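Quick entry between incubations.
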Amino acid sequence: MPVTLKDVAERAGVSRSAVSRTFTDGASVSTTMRRKVEKAARELGYSPNALASSLTTGRTKLIGLVSNNFLNPIFLQVFDLFTRGLQDRGLRPLLVNLSNETDPENSVRMLRQYSVDGVVVASSTLPSDFAMAFRDAGVPVVHAFGRYSSSPKVHVVGIDNREAGRLAARTLVERDYRDIAFLGGPEIATSTQDRFAGFMSELAAHPKIRVSHSFALAYSFDAGRQEMLRLLKAGPAQAYFCGDDVLSIGALSAIADSGYSCPADIGIIGLNDMEMARWENINLTTIHQPIEQIVTSSIELMLALLKDPDRHPEARIYSCPVVERGTLRAPA
Amino acid sequence: MPVTLKDVAERAGVSRSAVSRTFTDGASVSTTMRRKVEKAARELGYSPNALASSLTTGRTKLIGLVSNNFLNPIFLQVFDLFTRGLQDRGLRPLLVNLSNETDPENSVRMLRQYSVDGVVVASSTLPSDFAMAFRDAGVPVVHAFGRYSSSPKVHVVGIDNREAGRLAARTLVERDYRDIAFLGGPEIATSTQDRFAGFMSELAAHPKIRVSHSFALAYSFDAGRQEMLRLLKAGPAQAYFCGDDVLSIGALSAIADSGYSCPADIGIIGLNDMEMARWENINLTTIHQPIEQIVTSSIELMLALLKDPDRHPEARIYSCPVVERGTLRAPA
DNA sequence: CCAGTATTTGCAACCGGTTGCAATTCGCGT
DNA sequence: ACGCGAATTGCAACCGGTTGCAAATACTGG
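Done. Structure below.
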């Protein structure tokens, strides 16, 4: 049923190589030949089989897009930007959902079976083992939203989560909160670990300020709400740095339900600045994560990596401004 | 670098066919042989090249997942469920973002180049031409969230948007609203057209009720907010059926900002029941779209279609209950 | 018009697998 | 130990392309 190279060759009365060459740019074909072949191809509705050609060229133009955060609203933008950016450059995203997968091996095997040219791991919670497993399998890999390190083992694009933690702490201190807390995401998420570490390190310089911390079970509305309900019962702090925006919104809903008011009684600062954070009914003060830059940069890095797979691992880190909205009181 | 069938065959001292057979189930291999081959394969770290095999078998297990709604929060669940569901069945989603694509031909060509086994179009706004273009190219296709028809031209899974429009109208009437309106999504979206038609047809039976309508430019927060601001200035109705949840939330924010209150002054009912609708700070009364059923059913239908591509087109329609929350006053 | 070089074309082998067919080996009954 | 059918194995062709190489053709200047 599908029309192949051979069909076109026969119809045009030329060799198969000739047809192949008119469809690969940079090959030597005369204009006469090209016209003949294109005519035949058009008449037959031929388009070359990308997979078959990948066999000899060794490139599929397939890029594995691996994540485990499918339910976090931040990923709307991430997926939109990745899919658009990749296909604008002639690459195709092959999606892998890791939601309940712990072993990198399976994904590595699967993506190698489909001989992807490269893999983008998009997750702030996966340990770097995941990305390294791909690297070790010889597949170019970029870890977007990955853990920052001064001597990265794989290519990383994202933010410095420790710095973000420090920034959150500074922001709360500036606003004269004296009893503050970290409400983290799951403790195994590298982003939570780093944000926590940064938060604490900044506060080490302020011994007068009371600091506490706890962790929610997931980066989700329900987990944030539940943890905040618990904290409210036990006696809440004056302000919280929440692990991310969804968590913050869960916390906000708990606060409202318990008869407290934000920011009058309790302040909240989130992280991500996802679309919903600016919705007036939410209006969350938060640290902006430059999604677009991160995605664009990841794609560019991937492109460079496809050209030169042995590039030395590199960390591309973008800075995060605080976005002032309505869940923190004004600076002193 | 990558290890192939031949390498394994040589190491195990057997023919290439033998190796191939131990990796395709249903083939005749003795236990001795299988063990030998598996040992060699393990030692070499071999895993078969899915794309190469697709050349002869004619199946890639690749499924094109095509959409243009990447920024609508409802798609978090849609993508999560699709990717999980497909990969649980050994299929791989190849993502296509149609956001600024109007011509089906490009996508058809591209997906044929990658010889996908089937295509799922997931969109409530695309006209059915899109799905039909795939069908015409001989690719099994399911249109999830597509337009309902009693004699569908392609396989459709979703809701009956006209019925949803009628349900919305009934719900508003029951609550004794006498001046009501439809605030639709983009007028070219089939879902908006159908919801509008249903809404109006139900109200035809209530000549006493005042009805008006207008359309936002997109299914988005900003479009909803902007259109509602305009309506508020011109003199609003008592209650609105909004095209979908994001639109509703934009409208809510406009209402709050203009000093009105919901549901005291103006009632809102949305459609979709996306995750955020239940967030307490939003608490949107809405019509529930059974995402999980739709996705699961689409996948099952696709599986059936892969077995029997000539199956007669079928529409699978699921019903939508109203979810009572806080943006509509109580029934009379 | 011719030699000499530069382009264009086709042949055939190959990419990494699968599969029909015939040859071989196996298991079993006697 | 022998004969038989069933199960296993290898050969070789094929899937839809690409590409090195050599043959054929097209240009160039003298």
